[in-house]
Structures are given as structure tokens and as C-alpha cells.
Design brief:
about 300 residues, globular
């Protein structure tokens, strides 16, 4: 009897709280938020639908319309050539993969001491990194172009990869440091007790536990590189070295009137590397950081 009475008294306040009436002001706010979200979703959905529909429409224009009887793969046959798609895609993959690998490697090494050690220069360095994440690239491209001319790095793939990786470093370091902060230090201390040094704990303890975070940083960095138009447009001069992000611009100038269907087909092909990368890394993103289980083990 005593137990039942205590249980009834303990659950009564919860029932009253869950039945608290919602006022008209809350309904209006929720409805307004849903309407704004729906409008924003439609604004993003319409261009995507136009790209998909126009890619399979032989008579595509700027109007959003279902291909219907005009369904055709002619737009893809027209753009699937070495000059239009294969070579720019390959150049873009070389630039973006190379820049992403360098940026992730350097960012991991830079984030580790920032996450694990306390120095007097840690806070100024972090503030400098945070400031660099908001620095527009256009503000430094003129001196960078002059520097590349002096070093004879203009129109070189290696120099462009190095600069693109440099521009991605501030955000990559910032993200890696935040993900690394979530790895319990007690795991490293146990490894240090067994005789492991800092680089060994970073490789065998920290990195395996922060693979989801590294996957996020990799996708974020690669997408930023893949859609970068300005840097390769300024630093690469030869048409056969331009990536896909720059060659798509030629649909508006070099070929005269815009072939909207071919432009849409090229845009669909242009998004495939990002989709493939996301699918490959989605398994890493699906799991959460199981640090609790690691601690128990």
C-alpha cells in the first residue's frame, strides 16, 4: 500500500506537465515556422527538379517541365566527351583529392597539440584560425597571383593543390580540434602508461575513435574544393588543366547560345563525385562516438 501511494504521488506532477495546454501564440509561431521552412524547401527543390528534368529533355529550356515524350539521353551523349567532361572531371578530382588529403593530414597534426596540450599561445592561435575561416579568398588572390608568378607556380597543378589545401586548413583544423576534444584523455593516458608516445596514441587511439569526425571534415573539405571556381580560374591558364568547376562556365560563353539540356546533364554528372564520396563515408557518419563503450573496455 505504501509503495503504490508513493508511486502515484511521484508520477502525478509529470502527467500535469505533459498536458499543459498550448496557447494560440505558440500555434501561430509553429505555423509560421513551418510555412517559412516549406517555402525555403520549395525554393531549393525547384532548381534541383529543373536540373533533373532538363537533363533528360532534348528540348529543355528555362521552364520547369516534365520531359514526357521528349525524354532522351542525347544531352548526356553530347557532353560525355573527353574535352567537355572526362578531362575536366579528372582535373577536378586530382585537385580536390590532393588538396583534401593534404588538408586533412596537416589539420590532424595541428589539431592534436591544440586539443591535448596547454600553452600560452594556444588561445591566440585558435583566435587566428577562427579569424582565418572568415577571410574571403578574393581579398588575397591578387598578392597570391603575384607570388605564384614570382615562384613560377602559375598554371601548375601542384601549386594550385598546395594553395587550395592551404585555404581549407583553418576550417579543417577548427573542426578536427573540436572532434578531437571529444576523445577521452583517459584512453591516451592508459596507452602512455604502457609506453606509447604521442604519435602512437594519435594513430592507434585517437584517430580510430574520431573516424566519424574525420569523415565529416573530409566531406566538408572536398565539397568546398569541388565547387571552388575562383582559385583554379585564376591560377590555371591552360584549358586542358581546368577542372569541371571552371569548364562548366564555358557553357555560357564559348558555345554561344546556352544549351540548357546539355548544361543540366553536365550538372548531373558534376554532382556524382560528391554523391559517391558521401555514400562511401556514410557508414562512418551513421555511427556515433562510442566513447562510453571504449571507456568501459
Amino acid at each position: 500500500m505504501t509503495t503504490e501511494t508513493t508511486s502515484t504521488r511521484s508520477t502525478a506532477p509529470l502527467a500535469v506537465t505533459s498536458r499543459r495546454p498550448v496557447g494560440p501564440r505558440t500555434w501561430v509561431t509553429t505555423a509560421a515556422a513551418n510555412v517559412v521552412t516549406a517555402v525555403l524547401g520549395v525554393m531549393f527543390l525547384i532548381p534541383l527538379l529543373w536540373v533533373v528534368f532538363a537533363a533528360f529533355n532534348a528540348k529543355a529550356g528555362l521552364k520547369l517541365e516534365w520531359p514526357g515524350s521528349g525524354f532522351s539521353l542525347d544531352n548526356f551523349r553530347a557532353v560525355l566527351t573527353p574535352e567537355t567532361t572526362y578531362r575536366p572531371m579528372w582535373n577536378g578530382l586530382v585537385l580536390c583529392v590532393g588538396s583534401t588529403v593534404i588538408a586533412i593530414f596537416v589539420a590532424t597534426l595541428a589539431a592534436y597539440p591544440l586539443s591535448r596540450f596547454e600553452t600560452r599561445y594556444k588561445r591566440p592561435f585558435l583566435l587566428t584560425i577562427l579569424f582565418s575561416t572568415g577571410l574571403p579568398i578574393t581579398a588575397i588572390m591578387v598578392p597570391v597571383y603575384g607570388l605564384f608568378v614570382q615562384l613560377n607556380l602559375i598554371d601548375t597543378i601542384g601549386g594550385t593543390i598546395a594553395f587550395m589545401a592551404t585555404t581549407a586548413l583553418p576550417m579543417s583544423i577548427f573542426l578536427c580540434k573540436n572532434f578531437m576534444d571529444g576523445v577521452p584523455l583517459t584512453l591516451e593516458e592508459a596507452a602512455w602508461t604502457d609506453g606509447a608516445n604521442s604519435m602512437q596514441t594519435l594513430r592507434h587511439i585517437v584517430l580510430p575513435l574520431m573516424w566519424p569526425g574525420l569523415s565529416v571534415v573530409t566531406i566538408f573539405t572536398f565539397i568546398g574544393m569541388w565547387g571552388n571556381f575562383f582559385i583554379p580560374f585564376v591560377l590555371l591558364l591552360s584549358p586542358d588543366r581546368l577542372p569541371a568547376s571552371v569548364s562548366i562556365f564555358t557553357f555560357f560563353g564559348q558555345y554561344g547560345s546556352v544549351q540548357w539540356g546539355q548544361l543540366a546533364a553536365y550538372s548531373v554528372l558534376y554532382t556524382l563525385p560528391v554523391v559517391v564520396l558521401y555514400v562511401l563515408l556514410s557508414r562512418r557518419l551513421g555511427g556515433a562516438f562510442n566513447f562510453g563503450g571504449a571507456l568501459k573496455g
